[in-house]
């Protein structure tokens, strides 16, 4: 089975995979969207969680939301997962309780 087919299947099930090669080449499947990126960080939305990639000279080299695959290059320092952020409506509800 080809990698594209695997990525599409993982995305459909909400799964993802992360590959880091020599702190220089990063690939992830299961990507829903890229919410922000700079040369120092890339914030990736997965199914129900976010992945924050930080480093130096980061560049998104490929993004295919149809297959859910992102590739990036640069000097990768950290990968950090977090829960999906609450919706703005629920945040406002908490503020004005």
Task: Please supply descriptive tags for the structure shown above.
alpha+beta; Immunoglobulin-like; 6-stranded antiparallel β-sheet; globular; Spore_YabP/YqfC; Sporulation protein YabP; YabP_sf
Strand and helix map with partners:
Layout: H1 3-13, E1 17-21, E2 25-29, E3 33-37, E4 41-45, E5 49-64, E6 69-83, H2 88-95
Short overview:
The chain has about 100 residues and is of the alpha+beta class. The chain contains two helices and six strands.
- In the sheet with the most strands, the strands line up as 1-2-6-5-4-3
Please give the CATH class: Mainly Beta
The share of residues in extended strands comes to over 45%
- At CATH level 3, the topology is Immunoglobulin-like
How would you characterize the largest beta sheet?
6 strands, antiparallel
Q: Do you know the CATH architecture?
A: Sandwich
> What overall form do the CA principal axes indicate?
globular
Rg, Cα atoms, Å: 15 Å
Number of domains: 1
Protein name: Sporulation protein YabP
Pfam families: YabP
InterPro entries: Spore_YabP/YqfC, YabP_sf
Please explain how this structure is put together.
The chain is α+β, with helices and mostly antiparallel strands. It has one domain: Immunoglobulin-like. It is 20% helix and 53% strand. The chain is built from two helices and six strands, in the order H-E-E-E-E-E-E-H. A six-stranded antiparallel beta sheet has the order 1-2-6-5-4-3. Strand 5 (49-64) and strand 6 form a beta hairpin. It is globular. Residues 7-13 have low confidence and may be disordered. This is Sporulation protein YabP. It comes from Candidatus Limadaptatus stercoripullorum. InterPro entries: Spore_YabP/YqfC (IPR022476), YabP_sf (IPR038705).
């Amino acid at each position: 089975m080809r990698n594209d087919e695997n990525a599409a299947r993982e995305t459909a099930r909400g799964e993802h995979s992360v590959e880091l090669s020599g702190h220089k080449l990063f690939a992830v499947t299961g990507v829903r969207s890229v919410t922000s990126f700079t040369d120092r960080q890339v914030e990736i939305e997965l199914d129900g969680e976010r992945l924050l990639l930080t480093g130096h000279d980061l560049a998104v080299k490929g993004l295919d939301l149809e297959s859910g695959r992102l590739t990036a290059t640069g000097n990768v320092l950290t990968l950090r997962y977090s829960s999906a952020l609450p919706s703005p409506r629920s945040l406002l509800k908490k503020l004005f309780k």
